[in-house]
Structure formats: structure tokens, C-alpha cells
Amino acid sequence: MPPIIELKGLKKQYNPPDGVWAVKGVDLEIEEGEIFSFLGPNGAGKTTTISMISGLLTPTDGDAIIAGHSIRREPMAVKRLIGVVPQEIALYPTLTARQNLTFFGQMYGWGGRSLRKRVDEVLEFIGLTERANDKVKTFSGGMKRRLNIGVGLLHKPRIVYMDEPTVGIDPQSRRRILDTVKLLNEEGMTVLYTTHYMEEAQELSHRVGIIDHGVIIALGTVGELVQMVGEKDAIRLTVQEVPGNLIEALKAIEGVGEVTVGDGTITVMADRGRRALPRIINVADDAGVRIESVKVEEPDLEAVFLHLTGRALRE
Amino acid sequence: MRKLLNILRKDLYIRFTDVTALLYMFVTPMAVSLLMALAFGSFLGDGDIQISEIPVAVINYDEGVVFAGATEQANYGQQFVDMLIGSQGAAERGEDDEMALFFDRMFDPRQVDDEESARRMVEDGDLVALIVFPEDFSARVVSGEDAGVIEVYRSRGSDISASIVVSVVKGYANALSAVTITMDTAIPRIVEAVIRQNAAEGDDPFGLFFRTYQEVWTVIQGLVSRIGEIATASAIRIEDVGVSRGRPGFDPMAFLLPAMAIFFLMFSSTSGANSILEERNSWTLQRMMTTPTPLSSILAGKMLSVFATGVIQMAILIGASTLFGLKWGGNVVAMAVMVLTVSAAAGGLGAAIAGVAGSPERVDSYGSAFLIILGMLGGTFTPPQLFPDWLQALSKLTPNYWGADAFSILAHGGSLADVTTHVAVLLVIAVVLFSLGTWLLDRRIRL
Ligand SMILES: Nc1ncnc2c1ncn2[C@@H]1O[C@H](COP(=O)(O)OP(=O)(O)OP(=O)(O)O)[C@@H](O)[C@H]1O
Ligand SMILES: [Mg+2]
Q1: Which residue has the CA at smallest separation from atom 26 of ligand 1?
Q2: What 8-state DSSP symbol labels residue A148?
Q3: Fewer Cβ atoms within 10 Å of its own Cβ: the N or the C terminal residue of chain B?
Q4: How many Cβ atoms sit within 10 Å of the Cβ of residue B373?
Q5: Is 90 exceeded by the pLDDT of residue B53?
Q6: How far apart are the C-alpha atoms of B447 and B443, rounded to whole Å?
Q7: Cα separation of A162 and A192, whole Å?
Q8: Is the pLDDT confidence value at B346 over 60?
């Protein structure tokens, strides 16, 4: 079976000829039934890529074939197959949940009783039946997010793109949305998901593409990606201040790889971290640093990103 | 095609459930025209753009009062008369007292004894108002009961001039009463406007134009504050007499409301076209674009909404003002044609403004400024007949002029044949600007 989504050398430059190259050449194949995640920091090019394969932006170069249709040559055929959940809450605040769903349903060519029935189904699915006739502007952030997703599912698409669907909401709503994604996938939907939360990518995805500065820098299952880091553990120290010479001293310890400093934390990548831990604490002590807490973490996607770029996923 | 109608229905629903938008679309144009009509009623009636040399008469019956312990008599009625009459010629004498200069410029006063004949002159329209100070005026002021009753007997035909007289009298009464008076802000405003006018002197056409404009607004402010005062001021009694001195058969509202309606129509069309840019910012536009709907249909749907909103707005304004007694002329077909063409031109203008501006913020700032200038040029605030020739020529480049002129022709009994040029000009404007606007918007959206 050919892949359901195929990106071929996709590139995008905003405001040519001098503008930013937001996407610098992405090749990717996604199989039907997969949950695939783009994991990358702000400005990595996730939204730009999604916009190109949704037919919102014309690629500067390259093409995408969605279920056999070229996004360049047959955009309407592609649009019938895909559901898009934008990063922004793309809803009319003065319309009710039902009116929003109905309007966009009509834009997909639905109407009459079948649309009414489908709107009810979707409201039920996203748990907003009781608020169906309330204006969207009266909704909480989590409810808006859910409706934002609901609109993307309305026409029963084969493929759904979700661009950071959990930004800025409480843990409970996020849990609900992640479960929704899994449920949709179990029903056979192919999901292209973007996030900068590595926990989400890790939990949901069959495969993850780590994207940075407009290119995919690593691609594979979570297990495959983590192996790239080797046997390294991430040791996270919470400290009050970081003297300048501490980083160098830590790096000098045998078995320690990258050391990065975030907001009040130092992350030390070390082979078999637990063994290096006493030495690390000694060095910190010598430098006169007060350690408030220590956490040793198994390698995760965060560590992979750090390993590949020397930066934390979220600064 | 069905999707066009979906967009139309959605946009109309959103707009007509938006209370602020409705206020701007319907209430503001009516209110402003009404105030302007009051103002222009006297302008046109006097055949004069500037308010000055208002003929007033004053009778002073005040017997004055002697304060306890004082030898000199105080006569506040006489004081007012002296101020008013004494101010005459202040400009020639080179005085720099602002109040005296204002009185000198504004009034042509005379002190009279014969109340009967003065009243007749007001009734005949030879005097704008007669001010009467009663015998016990000063006595009452001093006793502090109230500021004393001053009677103003005014001609109904010259609302604006008469209201200036009333304002001045009121201001005087208020100044006399010890109570802190917040109500009469009209005088300082008028004085301020006069000063600004003096600064803008040198009779270049632009100066004239802006002075007229300022004066009208100042006067409107005065009127507004007058409405606010009715509840609080009891110090003077006003009597309206006489008949309208307006040109027979001429109704200033018939000229003003169309111009004002078109002016506000352009604002709502521009804000309608602007909603395309707003929808791009809120991503609902992109969401529409991810549905299998060509961008051209989406834009066409939005433009259809702008046009339909304009037609509805004009139709309702015309309908409502007819209920208030305004005559638009009986030619229903011609009116319908004008409503359609004016809405099309306004829609095109809105699209072009949104397309050129490119962002909602720029539409709100530069777009509104442009519409106000267009409105001023097009004769929304000043009848273009009062413009100098070159400005009249410029005026003919605005859709405002062609629309308002056509409605005015119809109101005075014209038929469709009399406004074919207007219709043609407006349609050309509509087509050109719609094409330009949608082309620009399309380019801005398609990245
Ligand atoms: N309309 C635009 N015009 C110009 N540059 C843009 C535009 N949209 C995005 N960019 C730039 O392109 C780059 C990629 O942006 P993009 O929105 O695709 O990133 P992202 O991975 O979705 O980030 P985030 O996690 O913040 O949503 C950034 O440098 C951004 O500034
Ligand atoms: Mg993004």
C-alpha cells in the first residue's frame, strides 16, 4: 500500500526572495492508520508544513501527495479527505457551538437532516451537547479547544491534522483530548499531530519526526529515537544559582556528555547516570552550589532533542 | 453558489446580532443628521455659512438692588445690556477681551423699550430673539433664591442662532448664581471655536472649508449640551414663536440624511470588507479555505455579504426616516436602483480600502481617516454648493457626492432619467473598486 501522506522535498520561503525559509526541505511518508507526530520547538516550521499540506499555503518547492492526490494539482480532492484542526481557535465567538459546526459543515457541502444529525454526533463526541446553544465566547479554554477539534472532524475525514491542539489548557482537558485522538485512531483515522510537548508525542505516536529550523532532524518510533542517545540518562538538578565555572567542571567528569542550563535547572547527560551522580554532586558542592533537588530520568524525547541540537525543547 | 449563500447568511447573522454595529449603522446616522439639520436649517435659511451678527433685542425692566451697607446700586440686568451693547466694535477698537470680541462678532444687539413691537419683530423673523429682564431680577439674584427668571422670546425659524442667544443668556444667569454650574459648557466651546477660526483667518478656501466644518460641530456640541441642560436649568424661560424661515419646500434633512446615510454606509461596508482580514487573523478564513471551497467563492461570498448589508442598512434608514416624516420622493423604483448602486459603490470602496490597508488595524486608522476626508469632500457636513469651484470639482470625484446628489434629486421629485449619470458613475466606481479590492485581498491571502 502506498503511504497515505507523502511529502516530497517540501519547502516554503515566506516573502521571497529575501524572507525566512520556514521549511527547508521535508521528505516524509505516513502510513494509513498511523498517529504521526511532529515534535519541535516554537518556529520549527510545524504550522507552515501543515498549512502547505492543507492547501492554505503554496509550497515554494516540492509537493505533497495525500491519498494519491497532489496538493498542487488537485487541492479540492485533498481537502475533501482531510480534517484540519488549526493551532488557533478558529471559531466565531458570537455564534453558538451548534452554529459554528453547522456553518463549517455546510462549507463541506453537507446540509439538511444528515448535517443536523452529524452535528449532534460531534457535539456528543466532544462532550458539548449541553452547551450546544451557548455562544462560543462564553466557553472555557478547554471547551473552545474541544469545539475547535470537533469542527475538524465534522465531515468524517480519513486523515486529520491537529496542530498543537492542547496549547494553553488544563491537564484534565488535555487528558480528554489525548484520549480523543487515540479513539479516533482506533476507528481507523490517520492522525498527523504536532506538539512541542514531548510527553504527548511519546504517549500518542506510532512514529515521531523531530523538526527543527525547518528540517526533520530525526525520524522513527519513540524507541528508535531514544536509542540514538545511547545509554545516557538525564540528570536534572534544581539549583539557586549557576556559577560560571560549574558547567566546565561538570563536563570534565568522566561519562558526562552535554550540560545545559535552563531556568533554575541544570540538565546533565551522563552514561549510566546513576553512577556519575555522586561525582556530580561533589563537583557542585565544591563550586558552592546549593542543590535543592536531583532527578534522574530515563532517556526520553527531550533528551533526544537535547542530544541532537544541544538545546532544550522549550526554553 | 450554495456556499456563497452560507457565507452570506453567517455574516449577516453575525453583523445583525452585534449591538455596537447596529448602533453605528442606524442610530448614529439618524442622530447626527437630525442635529446637522437643526444646524443647517438656519444656515440655509439665512443664506449664509457663518453665524454672526445675530439680530437680538434686549429689554431691561430690572430695578436693581442695594446691598445692605452699600450705597451703590447693583443692576444685573443693566450689566448684561452694557456688556452686550458695549462689546460692539470691540474688534475695531483692537480690544483683546475674548468675550467682548465674541459678542461683537456674534450679535447685532439693540436695547428697546417697546416690548410689543419687539415681539412682533421676532414673530416676523426680523429679530432672532428678544431677551427680557424682569423688575425683580437683581433682587432675586441677591436673595439667592434662584438666579432670577430671564425670558427669551425666540424665533422658531433660526434654531441655531436662537440657541446661541439662549446659551449666552444662560451662561450669564449661571455665572450670577453662586451655585457651581457645570452645565453650560456651550459658551466656552463656541468661544474656543471662534478663536480657532480667527487663527485660521486669511480667506483661503481651505480655511473657509474647515471653519465651516468646525463651526457646525461646535454648534452641535452646543445643542447636545443644551439637551443636557433642560433638566437642570430653571433660571430662564424660553418661548418659541414665529414660523420657520426656511426656504419654502426645502427640507434640509432631505439633503443631509442621504449624505449622512451614505457616509455611514461606507463605514459599515469598510468594516464588512475588513472582516475578511479579521477572519484571517482569527483563522476562520483559513478554516474556510481548508474546506473544499475555492478562495474565489469565499471572497465572492464575503463581498456579497458586504453588499447585502449595505442594501439592508440603506433600506432601513430610508424606511425609518420616512416614518419620521422625511420625504425621499415617491419614485420607488428609482430609489431601489439608487440603494443598489450606492451600496455597490460603498462595497467596492470598502473592499479597496481593506485590500490596500492589508490589516484590520490599518483599516481602522487610515481607512477611517480616508472615509472622513471623502465625506467632507463629498459634502456630508457642508453642502457642496457652498464650496469654492475647485473644491466642487474635487467633490465630484467622490461616490458620496454622486449618491447624495442623486437622492436629493429624487427627493425633489426627480425620476430615474434624471439620475442616469449618477447611476453610471457609481456603477463604474463599484466595478473598478470591487475588482481592485478583491484582487488585492486575494493576493494578500494567497501566500
Ligand atoms: N506568515 C508568515 N510570514 C512570515 N514568516 C512567517 C509566517 N508564518 C510563520 N513564519 C515564520 O516561519 C517560521 C516557522 O513558523 P511556524 O509557524 O511554521 O512554526 P511552528 O513550528 O508552528 O511554531 P509554533 O510552535 O510556535 O507554532 C518562523 O520563523 C516564523 O516566524
Ligand atoms: Mg505552529
Answers
A1: A42
A2: H
A3: N
A4: 11
A5: no
A6: 7
A7: 6
A8: yes
Nearest CB partner across the interface for B287, out of A14, A57, A90: A90
Q: Is B367 exposed, middle or buried (0-12, 13-18, 19+ CB in 10 A)?
A: buried
CB contact under 8 A, A94 and B447: no
Average pLDDT estimate for B45-57: 62
Residue B405 has pLDDT above 50, yes or no: yes
Nearest atom in ligand 1 to the alpha carbon of residue A46 is 21
State the Cα–Cα distance between residues A292 and B102, nearest whole angstrom.
Answer: 78
User: At A147, is the secondary structure helix, strand, or coil?
Assistant: helix
Which of the listed ranges B17-21, B133-137, B249-253, B345-349 does the model predict with the highest average pLDDT? B345-349
pLDDT averaged over chain A?
A: 91
pLDDT at residue B438 greater than cutoff 70: yes
pLDDT tens track for A239-282: 888 777 888 888 888 878 888 887 778 888 887 767 788 888 88
Exposure string over B410-420, b if 16+ CB within 10 A, otherwise e: bbeebebeebe
Interface size, chain A vs chain B, as Cβ–Cβ contacts under 8 Å: 63
pLDDT band at B28 (very low <50, low <70, confident <90, very high): confident
pTM assigned to the model: 0.71
Q: Which residues line ligand 1 (CB under 6 A)?
A: A 14-15, 20, 22, 40, 42-48, 87, 196
Buried/exposed B57-75: b ≥16 CB within 10 Å, e otherwise = bbbbebebbeeeeeeeebb
Nearest protein Cα to ligand 1, atom 1: A14
pLDDT confidence tier of residue B202, bands split at 50, 70 and 90: very low
Asked if A82 lies within 8 A of B290 by C-beta distance, the reply is yes
Q: State how far the Cα of B117 lies from the Cα of B235, in Å rounded to an integer.
A: 25
From residue A107, give the alpha-carbon distance in Å to each of A39, A233, B292, B303, B445: 31, 50, 7, 17, 18
Angle between helices B295-323 and B252-281 (to 10 degrees): 150
**Domain extents in chain B:** 2-46+249-446, 54-238
For residue B284, list chain A residues with Cβ-Cβ distance below 8 A: 90-92
Q: Is A256 helix (H, G, I), strand (E, B) or coil?
A: strand
For residue A56, the chain B residues in CB contact (below 8 A) are: 286, 289-290
Torsion of CA A285, A291, A297, A299, to 10 degrees: -60
Which residues on chain A are in Cβ contact (under 8 Å) with B14?
A: 92, 94-95
Could you say which of A76, A99, A111 has the minimum Cβ distance to residue B292?
Answer: A76
Report the residue of chain A nearest B275, measured CA to CA: A92
Q: CA B412 to CA B147: how far, in whole Å?
A: 48
Task: Give nearest CA residue, ligand 1 atom 12.
Answer: A22
**CA B188 to ligand 2 center in whole angstroms:** 56
